[in-house]
TrEMBL record:
Alphabetized SUPFAM superfamilies for the sequence: MetI-like (SSF161098)
Residues spanning the membrane: 36-59, 104-126, 133-159, 171-191, 212-237, 271-292
Cellular localisation: Cell membrane
Membrane topology type: Multi-pass membrane protein
Cited Pfam families: BPD_transp_1 (PF00528)
Record family assignment: Belongs to the binding-protein-dependent transport system permease family.
Domain ABC transmembrane type-1: 100-292
Keyword Transmembrane helix: yes
Protein name: Carbohydrate ABC transporter permease
Location (main, coarse): membrane
Database matches in InterPro entries: MetI-like, MetI-like_sf
Organism of this sequence: Microbacterium ureisolvens
């Protein structure tokens, strides 16, 4: 009798707990669902705000010149494709494809020069012990604090005396000389966090610095190299001041300088062609970023190998 009387309340309590347990996950699921929906709506709103200028630029390419200044809305009142026809014809007697080719040569050459020179300099700073290492590394870091405008006149005088003005050499030669301290510093920090055991094992097998750099270090710093290539490409593609200083012939102009030709302070500016050319100039950068976006995230997030 005692066992039965004692067990009935326990069984009833257990049944009440079993009946109540399914409600708690439902409440958690509902609460989690609402939080997800709120975050999703917030992210959509932020994305819309960030992408609105790009969307406005896209729709503005279909606006005639008469609507610029009067129609600031998103959609054009009288859509037209004449702006694309004007841009494809070119300006100043130079077709648009020539401007694209010049920009691509400068951007691709900058990427190649940055990857070659910066990786070699970074390996020297990170793996080779030599006299004056600390002083040279500090001087290299100090160039990050030196504005580009300070060295404009000396560099221009040097290239002018070398008869290199109105060529791509002044824009590409510094890239092959490891003058971009940002990329060198990024690769140095990446290489320093790699264990030296692989280097020592390679030296035991008779490998030198060239073999170690090419066969061991270079494959391991691939995420950092891709990060450097993305930034180097975008910066060179969008560079305006450098080509403005060293290039004088319209047939050598890249896209940033070509965009200036559509606007003349002494006459009527073709805003429709300017907007259209600006949008077309953005397409390679967007495609380049979308293709290598995953590698960019890996390069920023990866801190190298830890022993």
């Amino acid at each position: 009798m005692s066992t039965t009387s004692f067990g009935e309340p326990a069984i009833a309590t257990l049944e009440n707990q079993l009946d109540a347990t399914p409600e708690q996950p439902r409440r958690k699921v509902k609460r989690g669902t609402w939080q997800t929906v709120i975050w999703f709506v917030v992210l959509i709103a932020v994305t819309a705000v960030v992408l609105y200028p790009l969307v406005w630029l896209l729709f503005s390419t279909f606006k005639p010149n008469s609507e610029f200044g009067s129609n600031m809305g998103l959609l054009p009142n009288n859509p037209t494709i004449d702006n694309y026809a004007k841009v494809m014809e070119g300006i100043a007697g130079v077709p648009m494809w020539r401007f694209f080719l010049n920009s691509f040569i400068i951007a691709a050459g900058s990427v190649i020069g940055v990857l070659l020179s910066s990786s070699l300099a970074a390996y020297a700073f990170a793996r080779i012990q030599f006299k004056g290492l600390g002083i040279l590394f500090a001087a290299m870091i100090g160039t990050l604090l030196l504005p580009f405008h300070v060295v404009i006149i000396p560099q221009y005088i040097i290239f002018q005396r070398l008869d290199m003005i109105d060529t791509f050499i002044p824009l590409l030669l510094p890239k092959f000389l490891a003058t971009e301290a940002f990329f060198v510093f990024l690769l140095v920090q990446f290489i320093r966090q790699m264990p030296r055991d692989m280097d020592e094992a390679a030296r035991i097998d008779g490998a030198g610095h060239v073999r170690i750099f090419w066969s061991i270090i270079l494959p391991l710093i691939k995420p950092a190299l891709i990060t450097c290539s993305i930034f180097a490409f975008i910066w060179a593609w969008n560079d305006f001041l450098g080509p403005l200083l060293y290039l004088t012939s319209p047939e050598n102009y890249p896209l940033p300088i070509a965009l200036r030709l559509y606007n003349d302070q002494t006459s009527v500016s073709d805003y429709g062609a300017t907007v259209t050319a600006s949008f077309i100039a953005l397409i390679p950068v967007l495609l380049f970023f979308l293709v290598f976006q995953r590698f960019l995230v890996d390069g920023v997030a990866t801190q190298g190998l830890k022993g």
